[in-house]
Amino acid sequence: MIPTQFDDRFPDIRDAVRALCAEFPDEYHRKVDEARAYPEAFVDALTRAGWMAALIPQEYGGSGLGLAEASVIMEEINRSGGNSGACHGQMYNMGTLLRHGSNAQKELYLPRIASGEWRLQSMGVTEPTTGTDTTKIKTTAVKKGDRYVVNGQKVWISRVQHSDWMILLARTTPLAEVKKKSDGMSIFMVDLRAAEKSGMAVRPIPNMVNHETNELFFENLEIPAENLIGQEGQGFRYILDGLNAERTLIAAECIGDGYWFLDRVTKYVSEREVFGRPIGQNQGVQFPIADAYIEVEAANLMRWEACAKFDARQPCGAQANMAKYLAAKASWEAANAAIQFHGGFGFACEYDVERKFRETRLYQVAPVSTNMIYSYVAEHILGLPRSF
Ligand SMILES: Cc1cc2nc3c(=O)[nH]c(=O)nc-3n(C[C@H](O)[C@H](O)[C@H](O)COP(=O)(O)OP(=O)(O)OC[C@H]3O[C@@H](n4cnc5c(N)ncnc54)[C@H](O)[C@@H]3O)c2cc1C
Fold first, then answer.
1. For 149-195, what is each residue's pLDDT tens digit?
2. Residue 27 burial (CB < 10 Å; 0-12/13-18/19+)?
3. Which of 121, 122, 126 to mutate to test the pocket of ligand 1 (most atoms within 8 A of CB)?
């Protein structure tokens, strides 16, 4: 493995996650990708070892670790050649419940999520006609007695087929009737298997990555009123509260990817001989790899800054967004260098570069696109006028 500045942080966690991941070598992830299957055995092993419950407080059966430690788990999964995208929702989706759920909800859900008995891997926000403009969502939840009745549609909702519960964002007060456009939306716990039997249809979306993601159609889906999280109308704010953790963890995944590409390409260009010498002896080959390394290390600094602020309960929106931006960009540059200098072999599935290349590309678009991060920085940090 190439040296990194930060490998000495949380060495016990790193070693333990690396040891578990070593039981799932390249061939395992390659076969899962080829079969467009879910890495069930891998996710089960991570869950049984308690890694997915890192952020759940000990009183609810988790390990009560900070975001820094949790980010190391995600980084190591991706650095091992795996893809945290299959399971990262289980680590951070519960944050919404933890911060805004009632005591009864926390006691009901969190211990079962911590043990892995229940998976809370899905979060339903994006809609086909509104996209990034979340406050315009058209899915509605109307209270009728002790139930809410949901109608509408979502798109790109991940891991629905490998989750027991989903957090759903829906409008409970029409946009025309609220003072602020971010008011009037609420979040609910949706029992996915019950919903599939009545009121919710799931249509998988075949896509570039082996990422289980779906369109959801709601027709009079009934949700018990006690599944509302927090106060009615405050759901958008609750979702926003969780984004800093999500963005920082995904930054760590991209950093893991970046190091994985750099590990592989450095080894390959040192061994591959063309024109009678290793291709890595040419500066035309060395420099893009060195450039990608510098970018990943720099992104890593911002990731640790975001973790430190989050764990100290300080505002960290700027650092979390910038870490996600820098890390997604750096991993993509490392991916480009890796595929380029593997030559034709970069395109061969057996080298795994093309798989990781596809996987890491996603993070410039989801869960937040690069343009939205520019927009956040321009508006919230630089004080430029709102553009939307
Ligand atoms: C594999 C995958 C998994 C996903 N999983 C989930 C999930 O589990 N749950 C969920 O809720 N969503 C999920 N998403 C959705 C994801 O968060 C959105 O795709 C993403 O936020 C972008 O929204 P959109 O696709 O509607 O793009 P659009 O909003 O249509 O935007 C398209 C492009 O235009 C740019 N753009 C739009 N408006 C502006 C503007 N004002 N200024 C500058 N640029 C702009 C965007 O940056 C983007 O690049 C997933 C997406 C994918 C691909």
1. 999 999 999 999 999 999 999 999 999 999 999 999 999 999 999 99
2. exposed
3. 126
